[in-house]
Amino acid sequence: GENVEQHPSTLSVQEGDSAVIKCTYSDSASNYFPWYKQELGKGPQLIIDIRSNVGEKKDQRIAVTLNKTAKHFSLHITETQPEDSAVYFCAASKGAGSYQLTFGKGTKLSVIP
Amino acid sequence: DAGITQSPRHKVTETGTPVTLRCHQTENHRYMYWYRQDPGHGLRLIHYSYGVKDTDKGEVSDGYSVSRSKTEDFLLTLESATSSQTSVYFCAISEEGKNIQYFGAGTRLSVL
Fold first, then answer.
1. Chain A: residue whose CA lies nearest to B93
2. What distances in angstroms separate CA A88 from CA A45, B39, B50, B66, B86, one per listed residue?
3. Residue among A87, A56, A96 at smallest CA distance from A73
4. A22-76, pLDDT tens digit by residue?
5. Does A43 sit within 8 Å of B1, measured CB to CB?
6. Does B57 touch chain A (CB under 8 A)?
């Protein structure tokens, strides 16, 4: 089955700096890659996603890049703010017919004011 | 939380007792999922449903059963709870033809 590795497990940055979280996946058939943000005591919330026919996607301060050849994808957060502090999860899916997501183990991001 | 209600939100039970967690959605989505979240393991799929009375196993299904008698409700049952099933359980839903999954707020279960 699919295996998703996520690094780093913890990340501390100064407010205003950028944060990068990286994930690798094992199944070349995976074609959908979402990123979730989980705040303390809440369920994960989708913040951005990318499909395998796209190399990069941006939404304001958040961007995701995908390298299908190397089977890795990354989350980039620019101009970090204290409210970005949370646990972030990457995931991979084969898409239609299954919709099952395999998650990475998460990255705890701390933004220091 | 995208019209998803999980109940109870917290539960403490004893080893060997049966436990049922409920997920209720108001979105009329076809797909529903149960995950467990443990430190160092991220989210792992227990079971999922692709329609009324249609369910399948996920990565960590041993010790769990599910039922879906109505589109809006997906039940997760621990027939005889064990301490290893102490975890936070999340329900998720997704629409037909779309990968995006929306999560509920979670149920924190402690098995003593």
1. A99
2. 9, 13, 27, 28, 22
3. A56
4. 999 999 999 999 999 999 999 999 999 998 888 999 999 999 999 999 999 999 9
5. yes
6. no
Which amino acid makes up residue A45?
Q
Tell me the CA distances in angstroms from B20 to B23, B38, B58, B73, B101, one per residue in order: 10, 19, 18, 12, 22
Does A34 sit behind a cis peptide bond, omega within 30 degrees of 0 on the bond before it? no
- For the segment B28-74, what is each residue's pLDDT rounded down to a tens digit? 999 999 999 998 888 999 999 999 999 999 989 999 999 999 999 99
DSSP β-ladder status, A107-112 and A10-14: parallel
- Residue A60 token pair: 């304001």
Cα dihedral A94, B89, A49, B94, rounded to 10, equals: 70
